[in-house]
Amino acid sequence: MGLMSVKKTVVKPPVHRISSREKVGYATGDLAFNLIYQTVSSYLLFFYTDVFGISSAAAGLMFLIVRIFDAVVDPLIGTVVDRTNSKYGRFRPYLLYGAIPFAIMSVLCFTTPGFSDTGKLVYAYITYILLSVTYTTINVPYGALTSVITQDNKEVVSLTSVRVFFSNIGGMIVTYGVPLLVGVFAAANMKTSSSWQLTMTIMGVLGCLLLFYCFFNTKERVKVPDHAAEKINLKDAFEQFRVNRPLVLICLFFIINFGVNSIINSVGVYYITYNVDRPDLVKWYGLLGVLPALVCMPLMPFLYKWMGKRTLLFTTLTFKMVGLLALWVIPPSMVPLVLTARIISAIGTVTAGGLCWALVPETIDYGEYKTGKRMGGLIYAIIGFFYKFGMALGGIVPGLILDRFGYVANQAQTPTALHGILLTTTIIPAVFIIIELVAIYFYNLDEKEHKRVVAELEARQ
Questions:
Q1: Which of 127, 132, 158, 394 is most buried as measured by Cβ atoms within 10 A of its Cβ?
Q2: In terms of residue numbers, what domain contains 252?
Q3: Is 331 left (phi over 0), alpha (psi -120 to 50) or beta?
Q4: 13 within some domain
Q5: Pick the residue with more confidence: 233 or 276?
Q6: 33 C-beta neighbours (distance < 10 Å), count
Q7: How far apart (Å, rounded) are the C-alpha atoms in residues 140 and 376?
Q8: For position 136, which CATH number holds?
Q9: Would you say residue 57 has pLDDT above 60?
Q10: Across 258-262, 274-278, 334-338, 387-391, which has the greatest mean pLDDT?
């Protein structure tokens, strides 16, 4: 009956054209998140071990515990978000009211009170947990906002490409700007800890203002009936795993992909500082990790149309793996080749990362098609759970491996420690990328099937 109703009632799924202003407005939200959370992802482990004085093993374990805790909270927040009904909409209010707490907690994470070793660890746990929960409370509705801005797949890809473009601008600002600012403040005879705190204050204020801009320049168009939202609860997450195969595969992709990215980002500063022995290149190495986004993201809608999602993901992940494995064989002294391999890997990283976010809204459509409930917040929270669990694994793996190979902060490293850093930078991420390729092979929601699903949903209304 469903297919018959589609043929009689709807020929094409609905199209919601989005203005360039709104696309930019939405994208500034991800720019804001990256100014803050990319700093945390890239530098917090280094800050804890080399500035705050926490051991690498203790810091790595903390990353695992905090991120798992945060991931468990995600579905709870998702159900609350899906039940929200305000004059500003279902998802946008969280951007307005969460921006200031998010900025404050980010500064506290990079603050170093003069506590004992135990006190430092307790302080780090508390501030990192609060930052992570605050991040989740605004990031889950921000991600779900895509699904109510438009249901047109091409517009979603375009919107996501602009979002990821701005996200990577944030990444460039962080990877180049954070070490630069810390160095400038240190050169002004400021303590290292104070340099980091002031740098994070700048990032936090900018992020807060950008979240406000995102709130005022977006609109929720796809309406969800209030009675449908009231029926959503936590057990619906388990139902989604039973009937929503695309969601299951996307979750697997997220846990691996962003776990790998977390490993690469965390270890990159160690690799350049100790293996390459060029700490002055840390900002450039980080910048080259996101610079390809300036070319790749504008091309993503064209590449998506030309290659299709599955072929495009296979191609980009292959680039990512080839670049990482090249670092395994390139001598660290050959800096130009090291930086070239970084660019090759980054081309795959930024494109695959952008495309995977574009796939999430269609899993929301598919979930509604299978269950009759539209659960944008809950599904983004489920995605967030696996995203953060991957980040947790990516956080603990470098800390434990560095400790296992005898890494000691702020001194010349032994050959064994250097080998551990290189292994964590190259071979370990490459193994996980192979698993990603297998997961994408089984993804069954192609462009034609998604159009049929959206058309069926429109017919039901």
A1: 394
A2: 19-222+234-460
A3: beta
A4: no
A5: 276
A6: 23
A7: 9
A8: 1.20.1250.20
A9: yes
A10: 334-338
